[in-house]
Amino acid sequence: MWRLTRPFAIYFFLLLLLVPINTYAEEFKVEAGQSIQRAVDSSRNGDTILISPGLYKESVMINKEVSIKGEKGAIIDGGGRGNVIIVTASNIVIDGLTIQNSGSGQEDSGIHIKKADRNVIQNNILKNVQNGIYLANSNENKLLGNSITSNKSHFSKRGNGIHIFKGGGHFLKGNEIESVQDGIYFDFTSGIQVSENHVGESRYGMHFMFSDEILAERNHVEKNVTGFMVMDSAHIDFIQNKVTDHFHFRGYGILIYETKNVLVEGNEILRNSTGLSLEYGVNTSIKRNQIAANQVGLEFMGKNENNTFSENNFIGNVVQSKISGEDMRLDDGVKGNYWDDYSSFDLSGDGVGEEAYKAGSLYDRLLRKQPYWQFFFESPSIKLWTKAEALFPSFGAADVYDARPLVEPVTMFQETEQHSKDRLMPGLIGILFVVFSIFVIVKGRKL
Amino acid sequence: MVKKLGVLLMMSVGVVSSCSNSAMEPEEINPEIDVCDVCNMGLAHEHYATEIVTADGEIYKFDDIGCMNEFLEMETSLQEESTAKKYVRDVDTGEWIELEKAYNAYHPEFWTPMANGVVSFKDKESAENYIKEQGMGEVLDYKALKKHDWSWER
Fold it and tell me: Where is the signal peptide (chain B) (predicted)?
């Protein structure tokens, strides 16, 4: 008997489950010419609002738990006044919209989220907005795959790509930010993960102020004034980011100022005015980074305490280090760093040079006091000076040295390992070429 | 030859002396290149910027009044009026005002680039208006500002 009725019982049970969902979650469709705000007003928690392609000239206030999904070509235009979308409800979704023309007040934004948690903002295009997405006093929001640009004016007149003010626990991934003031601005926030975002052509790629516990991994910041600006913060981890092409004359790859407990690991810091700068940095750990082709590789200013550097490659920086301030050791006691201008030998064969590498030169110290002396860079007199200093190391300013300098660069990335295999072919061709040359020479003589 | 050198010397003296700023006037902010002399941050929010102009014509720029205060604590010789003038800007108009003559609105929640919550105005009325608009804060004149406890805690 039960065998027969069981399927019916299950079916009935499933029906019971389905019925409430059907009545509670409805799907609205908004067509061009209609109002999105009206659809939001007449919807209930859990509803989905589909936006058809078209231009919607309005500002939208979302104050209940709805999902808003834009079809391709759905554009909301704020008309240059205030915020385009304001969110004050939690658990909402905004997906696939183009959002444009916010006002130009300091906090005017494409999407402004106030005291709202666990929202998902994804795959939207925000353009010609003062700030892109502004998160104030909110927690655990997800911003995924949005594309953000501000207006065409100078960066001092624009807002930030993503501004996070207080609150925390957010997750930001795969956002594409360009031409704003600061790409992502962390303002009194904590507990945030930022992965695989790209920021370019702005003032700062990411700006950390008074913030705590932030993990930034696999992001690419390029062609801004400064890549990562870290001030008065703590527990910031930078892992496997690319920080490239910051050539502004006062630009930096990474600038750490009055900040504690920073981890900088596995990053590529390439082609910046100054690669990495520490000023009043405490407890930072800087390891396995590629710091190459910068005008100044490493800069220390003021007092820096308890920092460890190990297994970094300093390669092809015009000035390897520029140092003023306190004495410091640049190795962790076992391993130091690879410096391509290190000129001593590894006699014991353990991969570590026998003599300490001394960073900074007297010229650096002079430059600090007389910046215009940069004019004499690479002039014979400065070269002579630097050479004399190398012979009499006691000349130098602060005593900053690497007691365990590596004689071979550290291999960091898989690609570099594969390169070494590819060298077999050119080698073979070279050998053949030499053999052929010898043959020609010998033959030629005989004739 | 000697004459030519003499002329050259005169010219260079001329160039050098024309650079010095004897009136101790503030200088326009260029957000593209100017950075705060304390914290290295670019001066993007021009109306919050402050300046110290010394009698020797040296100009120091800061992103807000808190950083200037920090600088003055380090460089005690610049605290006297005769050696350096301190300038702040009216946040509405960007007009330069001497620190002594400015009225400041203060509340820890007021936004400034380094978040110390002090915003300057050219007269008491504008400062009071700002406080009314924001619905919080107090007016600090120069005397009160000297006693102000600078902090970033909110």
Answer: 1-23
CB contact under 8 A, B111 and A250: no
Spatial separation of the C-alpha atoms in residues A434 and A375, rounded to whole Å: 46
Query: CA-CA distance, B71 to A303, in Å (whole number)?
Result: 16
Residues B21-77 pLDDT 10s: 568 899 999 998 899 999 888 999 999 999 999 998 899 999 999 999 999 998 988
pTM assigned to the model: 0.82
- Contact in structure between A327 and A351 (CB atoms under 8 Å): no
What are the C-alpha distances in Å from A392 to residues A129, A321, A340, A396, B48?
58, 19, 21, 8, 48
Q: Look up residue B3 and give its two tokens.
A: 């004459």
- The angle subtended at Cα B114 by Cα B109 and Cα B120, nearest 5°, is 70
Report the distance separating Cα A269 and Cα A275, nearest Å.
6
Residue A84: C-alpha distances to residues A50, A137, A308, A341 (Å) = 18, 19, 47, 54
**A257 near B CB under 8 A:** yes
Spatial neighbors of A306 by CB under 8 A, at least 6 apart, are A282, A283
Q: Using an 8 Å Cβ cutoff, are A106 and A128 in contact?
A: no
Backbone angles phi, psi at A342, to 5 degrees: -75, 135
What gap in Å lies between CA B82 and CA B108, rounded to an integer? 32
- Predicted confidence band at A272 (pLDDT cuts at 50, 70, 90)? very high
Q: Which two tokens stand for residue A84?
A: 């385009």
What is the 3-class SS of A404-417, one letter each residue? CCECCCCCCCHHHH
Instruction: Determine, for residues A257 and B40 on separate chains, whether the beta-carbon distance falls below 8 Å.
Output: yes
- Does residue A366 sit at the B interface (CB-CB below 8 Å)? no
Say if CB A259 and CB A269 are below 8 A apart. no
Q: How far apart are CA A89 and CA A38, in angstroms?
A: 16
Alpha carbon distance A161, A238 (integer Å): 20
Q: Closest to B33 (Cβ–Cβ): which among A181, A250, A258?
A: A250
Is the ipTM value over 0.90, yes or no? no
Q: Which two tokens stand for residue B106?
A: 């203060």
Residue A423 corresponds to which tokens in the numbers above? Answer: 């060298």
pLDDT tens figures, A317-334: 888 888 877 788 899 989
* β-pair type (B50-54, B59-62): antiparallel
Residue B73's H or E segment, with its range, is: helix B65-74
Nearest chain A CA: its distance from B138 CA (Å):
22
What's the gap in Å between the CA of A392 and the closest CA on chain B? 33
Contact (Cβ atoms closer than 8 angstroms) between residue A181 and residue A205: no
* Residue-wise pLDDT tens digits, A137-170: 999 999 999 999 999 999 999 999 999 999 999 9
Residues of chain B by 3-state class (helix, strand, coil), percent to 5: 35, 20, 45
| Separation of alpha carbons B152 and B154, rounded Å | 6
